[in-house]
Amino acid sequence: MSYYICASLKTLHWKYLFVPLVLVATLAQAQVESAVELMEDSASWVMQEPHIGGMTEDEEEVETTLFNEASSGLFLATVYDSLTHIPAYDMYCGWDTKNLFASKNAMESVGDGVDFRLCYSDCDFHYPAEGDMTSPFGPRWGRMHKGLDIDLESGDQVKAAFEGMVRISQNHSTYGNVIVVRHNNGLETLYAHLSQRDVKPGDHVEAGQVIGLGGNTGRSYGAHLHFEVRYMGEPIDPNYLVDPSKKSLRDWEFTLNKKHLETPTIDPKAIEARGAKKYYSVRKGDTLSAIARKNKTTVDKLCKLNKMKKSSTLRPGQKLRVK
Ligand SMILES: [Zn+2]
């Protein structure tokens, strides 16, 4: 259904949508219907595909994922408003402020490649945090690490990489305090494990604008920024776009191909080993050597596992990987 709406949007002239839109709107005066629902009804009417009985599975999905109350602050009364105000609304056929990722078939929509204009001038991009990269995109500990990790201290500023509109600002069990920004070209960037979120869905942000403060929330062991770039919900290695050593864009343009979306295979041995991971919560007065002794390991191994130095300060409550 969603592709069908997209197709309708592109091929139908507005005058054919306008009349049914008004009619449906009048019939539904008692209810506040979302623009997307109106669009669905209108589009199917125009295309002479009547709604009979309940919703199909596809329609249910559209209903739950496209539109919700957070959009009301944007004064989106019609589909045209949404198309005008929301970045890449036509590409995604919607604006979901609850679910982190769209469930579109990115592979299919990439076709022979999609060109993204990333930048029009130097200030159109800002590296999201000051620190160095501590972990790249790719298989890690038997899982796919779908972003890159940037070192920071809790409370350090986290900045939007590009201009865009905040789509997600929520507390998530894995990502912790997380913000997702949709950009005009259709790419989305994600900022996770924050200690503080300073923006809400619908907020317009500029490249380099502070959107929150770094932290150690969600499934995170040690303060860092987990930064992702996604297209249609699919993760792309940020390294294709950004040079982490220079903290700058590689190029002002980026062509996304299927090869960018192919997930590397994960070594089954690594998946097995994942179960053997163990963590320790630092107590007051603990030292690295005491923790190493208690957990039958060495200080060197602890430092390596936790990407820390022997001289690093330990904080009570801090989670250290010991195995
Ligand atoms: Zn990460």
Brief synopsis:
The chain is α+β, with helices and mostly antiparallel strands and 323 residues long.
- Assign the CATH architecture of the largest domain: Distorted Sandwich
User: What integer value in Å does the Rg equal?
Assistant: 23 Å
Low-confidence stretches: 1-70
Class inferred from helices and paired strands? alpha+beta
CATH topology label of the largest domain: Glucose Permease (Domain IIA)
CATH superfamily of the largest domain: Glucose Permease (Domain IIA)
Largest sheet: 8 strands, antiparallel
Number of domains: 3
CATH class of the largest domain: Mainly Beta
* DSSP E strands, number: 19
The percent range for helix content is 25-40%
Write down the secondary-structure element order.
HHHHHHHEEEEEEEEEEEEEEEEEHHEHHE
The bound ligands are:
zinc ion
- By DSSP (H or I, 4+ residues per run), the number of helices equals 11
The portion of residues forming beta strands comes to 15-25%
Task: Give the N-terminus to C-terminus distance in angstroms.
Answer: 48 Å
What is the mean pLDDT?
78
Task: Work out the oligomeric state of the chains in this entry.
Answer: single chain
Instruction: Describe the global form.
Output: globular
Provide an overview of this structure.
The protein has 323 residues and is an alpha+beta fold. The protein has 3 domains: 98 residues, no CATH class; 140 residues, Glucose Permease (Domain IIA) (Distorted Sandwich), CATH 2.70.70.10; 44 residues, Membrane-bound Lytic Murein Transglycosylase D, Chain A. Helices cover 27% and strands 24% of the residues. The protein contains 11 helices and 19 strands. Strands 2, 5, 7, 8, 9, 11, 13 and 14 form an 8-stranded antiparallel β-sheet that branches. Strands 6-12-10 form a 3-stranded antiparallel β-sheet, with no helix packed on it. A hairpin with a 3-residue loop joins β7 and β8. The longest helix is centred in the N-terminal third of the chain and has 14 residues. It is globular and about 65 Å long. The N terminus is likely disordered. The structure holds zinc ion. The site of zinc ion has 5 residues, from loops.
